[in-house]
Amino acid sequence: MQAATVVINRRALRHNLQRLRELAPASKMVAVVKANAYGHGLLETARTLPDADAFGVARLEEALRLRAGGITKPVLLLEGFFDARDLPTISAQHFHTAVHNEEQLAALEEANLDEPVTVWMKLDTGMHRLGVRPEQAEAFYHRLTQCKNVRQPVNIVSHFARADEPKCGATEKQLAIFNTFCEGKPGQRSIAASGGILLWPQSHFDWVRPGIILYGVSPLEDRSTGADFGCQPVMSLTSSLIAVREHKAGEPVGYGGTWVSERDTRLGVVAMGYGDGYPRAAPSGTPVLVNGREVPIVGRVAMDMICVDLGPQAQDKAG
């Protein structure tokens, strides 16, 4: 009998990268592997994707783990550096870094580096989280072009706020700001992450940055899946039925008795819970697959168990 197990399908991961290349054929790929590759394993994922053109991370520590693990491709620090003292390491390891505020720019201007750093100036086109405001961008860009510690030309990056909402108009506005600023500038450009790759081909430019879609999960909120775009799920979370019980109509199940059966049925108890990473907030009705068919969770998710309604005619057995 198998307890909760995560299975990573490396073939699906490679397939997804190739599928995204088909969707953005003129662009290079920054495979985003931040947050332990979305839980899929940082080094394992990077080693599975030798054809990626670069890797994107959120922290310098992640970039250093990639280098220590033998990854020699470019690594982009998507949030830039957090401390000026990190610049010599970034330079020595040939990491790329976003630069999005005055403090980072001043640190670059004042640093004493053996080699210049490849920089991606982050332009705030509408996310309003990180980035240089458009009215300040030309002066900021000019200082980067004059900085001895910046490898020329300066690259330009931004990020969509609502790429998953194709009818809201926000993405068109961001694209217009991005295009206006980039016009006539020689560096590489990147604005499309997962949603941009799927829905906005005019945003692909020189580099795209697939994140969640690389792992087979749609970033869109319209109930689409990765399969709708030709991608495959990379992670499977599986377990076993540890009990199958007869359950009477009117009986509650689990903590708080939040679900009460309206019929006689058969309940399955699965060795899986929030202690295994399953979302504790998953409500009754959340679908899971049991022996290839979809059945609903019933009752609250416990630390190491969930209950599912198998149906009154179910023939499933524990094990």
From TrEMBL:
The protein's Enzyme Commission number: 5.1.1.1
Enzyme type, top EC level: isomerase
Swiss-Prot/TrEMBL cofactor(s): pyridoxal 5'-phosphate
Transmembrane segments: none
Protein residues bound to substrate: 129, 303
UniProt KW Transcription keyword: no
N6-(pyridoxal phosphate)lysine, modified sites: 34
InterPro entries in the cross-refs: Ala_racemase, Ala_racemase/Decarboxylase_C, Ala_racemase_C, Ala_racemase_N, Ala_racemase_pyridoxalP-BS, PLP-binding_barrel
NCBIfam families: alr (TIGR00492)
Name of the protein: Alanine racemase, biosynthetic
Species of provenance: Escherichia coli
